[in-house]
Amino acid sequence: MVLAITVAILLQGPLPGRLVLFQPTWLLPMLEGVVFVLISVLNPHRIDRESKVLRILSLSGATLISLANAWSAAHLVNG
Predict the structure, then answer these.
(1) How confident is the prediction along the chain (79 residues), in pLDDT tens digits per residue?
(2) 43-51 long-range CB contacts below 8 Å, 24 or more apart?
(3) How many Cβ atoms are within 10 Å of 32's Cβ, its own excluded?
(4) What pLDDT shows up at residue 47?
(5) What is the three-state SS of 32-44?
(6) Is the torsion defined by CA of 56, 18, 15, 13 positive or negative?
(7) What phi and psi values does residue 25 have, to the nearest 5 degrees?
(8) What is the signed CA dihedral for 15, 35, 50, 3, rounded to 10 degrees?
(9) What pTM was estimated for this model as a whole?
């Protein structure tokens, strides 16, 4: 899971400006990285531990990644 999240964040870095959700282009990968680091720091041993804060952070990270990918795909197809 850690590898998949890291790859998703890193792949958003080199996207051209017209395909990113937020400007500047580094902003969204940075936000996703911050959420990922917070999840890892708050729960270093078991990422699936039941916690309301961890669940909200995890869903926020997944939402950011999904929204950014959908936005980029839609703009790529439209272009």
Answers:
(1) 677 778 888 887 777 777 777 778 788 888 888 888 888 887 766 655 577 887 888 888 888 888 888 888 888 888 7
(2) 47/1, 47/2
(3) 22
(4) 55
(5) HHHHHHHHHHHCC
(6) negative
(7) -65, -25
(8) 40
(9) 0.65
Separation CA 30–CA 69 (nearest Å) = 15
CA 9, 76, 32: angle at the middle one, nearest 5? 15
Dist. CA 17–CA 7, nearest whole Å: 19
Which of 63, 66, 77 lies closest to 19 in space, CA to CA? Answer: 77
Q: Taking every pair of C-alpha atoms in the chain, what is the biggest distance, in angstroms? A: 43
- DSSP string of the chain? -HHHHHHHHHHHTT--GGG-SSSSTTHHHHHHHHHHHHHHHH-SS-TT---HHHHHHHHHHHHHHHHHHHHHHHHHHH-
Quote the tokens at residue 45. 């041993």
